[in-house]
Design the sequence.
């Protein structure tokens, strides 16, 4: 199947690691000491996962080591790869630096969003996703701040992130990943989006003082999430998951159900209609970030957004006990049959456009 822009970049990077000269370039592209050491081969991927930047990764790496013995060989290799993708992802490395800055009391940008476009009804402003390899992850700019403002700012975003979790708690498939309904999931998600779009550092500030607590799942002890990578790691190891699925990283069907519900909340709260420009950019934004958890999921972002456009789909989902039988368990080959050719083939290098 066709690969996305990010997959092609990863393939080139993997090839580069086999050659000493190109290794040198990669080490300068990724500034993290952990990532650089892993690329050089001076430490193993397993060791890299256990090294901490201000202690933020130590717990997750240690838990991964403890769990390897109880997993099959295939499951271990798949989860090792998924965990390493998170550890070396430029956005997650940038977020780790941001929390370090918050702990030191360094304030991020608090500039007000630029004025929204002149009145005259909602319109779609096509803004390229501001992500390029080597720039330290997704970067906000005046356009992202303007679109966030148009969508209602942090409060507008919180409307759909909180509604999303209300819907997700009732979905039997997605809820298995969510250990505790009492955590402020929706507000944290809204803070993360707000910071990524360039208005303040609410997410990093909250994380810098967040307390963690231990919990047990299937005979293993964990600490509650303290950042984005540990949040997903603990979701893989939620006590609600079956013994068979416990510890397995997110798969394509998991991501597709998640995205359908998420974009449904975006549409249902009116944020999509209020700012089509924000929605158009946000789909590309999610298309970029979901790829770290499951590379093929990016192909299905636009299909997931279209799902809630037809109320009959939502009604059928509810009538079926909130289960998406037309998604769960499908292979990539089967799932791709539902995509138009230009989406299946990633025409135009979407979402990096």
Sequence:
């Amino acid at each position: 199947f066709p690969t996305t822009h990010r997959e092609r970049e990863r393939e080139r990077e993997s090839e580069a690691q086999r050659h000493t000269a190109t290794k040198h370039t990669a080490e300068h592209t990724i500034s993290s000491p952990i990532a650089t050491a892993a690329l050089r081969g001076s430490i193993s991927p397993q060791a890299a996962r256990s090294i901490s930047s201000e202690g933020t990764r130590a717990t997750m790496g240690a838990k991964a080591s403890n769990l390897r013995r109880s997993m099959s060989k295939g499951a271990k290799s798949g989860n090792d790869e998924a965990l390493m993708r998170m550890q070396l992802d430029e956005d997650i490395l940038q977020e780790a630096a941001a929390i370090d800055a918050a702990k030191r009391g360094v304030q991020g940008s608090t500039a007000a969003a630029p004025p929204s476009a002149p009145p005259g009804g909602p319109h779609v402003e096509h803004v390229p996703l501001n992500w390029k390899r080597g720039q330290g992850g997704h970067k906000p700019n005046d356009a992202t701040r303007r679109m966030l403002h148009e969508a209602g700012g942090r409060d507008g975003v919180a409307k759909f992130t909180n509604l999303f979790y209300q819907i997700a708690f009732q979905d039997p498939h997605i809820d298995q990943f969510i250990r505790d309904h009492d955590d402020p999931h929706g507000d944290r998600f809204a803070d993360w989006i707000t910071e990524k779009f360039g208005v303040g550092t609410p997410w990093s500030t909250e994380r810098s003082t967040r307390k963690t607590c231990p919990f047990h799942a299937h005979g293993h002890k964990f600490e509650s999430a303290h950042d984005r990578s540990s949040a997903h790691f603990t979701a893989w190891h939620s006590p609600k998951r079956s013994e068979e699925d416990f510890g397995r990283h997110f798969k394509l069907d998991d991501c597709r159900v998640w995205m359908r519900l998420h974009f449904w909340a975006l549409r249902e709260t009116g944020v999509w209609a209020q700012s089509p420009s924000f929605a158009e950019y946000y789909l590309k934004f999610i298309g970029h970030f979901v790829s770290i958890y499951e590379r093929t999921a990016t192909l299905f972002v636009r299909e997931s957004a279209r799902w809630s456009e037809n109320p009959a789909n939502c009604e059928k989902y509810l009538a079926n006990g909130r289960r998406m039988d037309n998604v769960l368990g499908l292979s990539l080959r089967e799932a791709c049959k539902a995509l138009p050719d230009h989406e299946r083939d990633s025409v135009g290098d979407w979402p990096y456009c």
In short: The radius of gyration is 20 Å. Strands lie at 214-217, 220-223. Confidence is low (pLDDT under 50) at residues 15-75, 109-119. The chain has one domain: 5-349.
